[in-house]
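subagent[fold] <- orchestrator: predict structure for attached chain, return tokens only, no commentary.
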Amino acid sequence: MKELFYQPKWSSILANLNVSPPYIADFDSASAMLRATAAYLRGEDFPGLGITSPAVEPLFSLVNQLPRPLQEFIYTTGSANEGIPPERLKDTRIEVVAQWMVNQYPLKEYPAVAIGSSSGAMVHLYAALGIPWLPQTFLVPVKHPGLDPDEPKKYLEWGKKYAPAFLEANPEIVLHQMHDPNEDRLTSQGMTYFRVKRLRLGTAFERFIENSLPQGGTIFLVECQNSWPTTQVSERHIFQFGAVGGMNSQEFLYGSERVAEYIQRYHPSQQKWDAPEPDAESPEAEWGFRPELAEDVERFARERGYRVRRIVFDEPAYPSPFVAELYRWWYKQQKILTNRLLIESFVLLEPFWMLQTGSIPFWLTFNKQPSLDWLLDYLKSSQSYNEIYMMLFSHGVESVGLVSIEQWRAVLARAKEKGDFIGVDQDKYPRDFASMIRYYTDLKRTISQRYPLPEPLTLEQLDQFISEQGQQFPVRWLD
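subagent[fold] -> orchestrator:
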């Protein structure tokens, strides 16, 4: 089946059969958030990130018990197996990916459609409104012959060799090649990250919107303004060293004491990374929004008679307080208690069970200090919670900026009655690979309260909340 997907004459047929293309990453933020949103709109939950059965939980738990070198080998090898051979890049088709994306959603009429940046917080807004979301960015993982994560210039040169054929086959995208030896040390040992950003809607997205959105309907443009220093490789190929996580771009590029300590675990004589010199500031590879797509959406909306509304924020987790307080406001109208906070982490999220358990969502970008600071800011300013639960993503490395399990435990202690982790083996974090499955199975076991799934929040209700409370949040709503 995989081999067929590389053949242009078969690719669209298989996409229409809802078989995911082999050249997209299943464990990427965009893929996971798309699957989670679509699953909810189909009336389904999101077990094992939508791709793994909970039945394999014992196998993941066994991996947790293995010696560290063997754990890292399995994690690295498993990640590399997601990658495609670089020689196959010329056979990839972005429109095939787009067709697969729209096929995740029920084909029916929606009051709005969202398109743009990834954000786990926004997934819960889409679920509340009952609307689909189409990502601008997704990840094509590409196998490489075992490059050293601490030599970023080699990744750039390697990408320079294989990117031209990929770009020639897909003129509607810009390639943001990303390399992050801090968060992605294990995964980047076997593959490189080709993050792709669409410059225009394309046929599949346009047809989906036309078939799903009545005239006068709303297209939400979701625009994360996060940016990063980059190096221009060619007209549509950008190289980004470092990424959103535990430190800023300047530390990646020019080093610090904690960077030196981290690198010296692997290369005792090395103090910092020898990174390509940046020559521009670009939308961040994973989260940032490229404005060319907005121009094409506005053109399409004018021609079809749709309304365009922009949702603009500076960091991927900035909508989290807005969405949390929106859920509180919405739940009160439905006579649902608003005293339970459920904290999600990166790709560990569950819109179906969030609503089924009557929990308030708060999504964190990652397991790093900026995410903890953002959560604490919210807890200090919001009404206190009786219960606080937390999912916690494990990426397998004691990287720069990692928040300790003790610090996360202190957050749970802020609950007035009960605070607990969901699916987390505290002794194994940040190598708790079984949490990729247990976040789902443990959630259902830990929170026993159930509510019927509500009728969707209306656009009028959303506007009412924005009018009453929207000014206090770092999210801009623009027509």
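orchestrator: received. Logging for downstream: The longest helix spans residues 152-169. Residues 189 and 299 are 42 Å apart (CA to CA).
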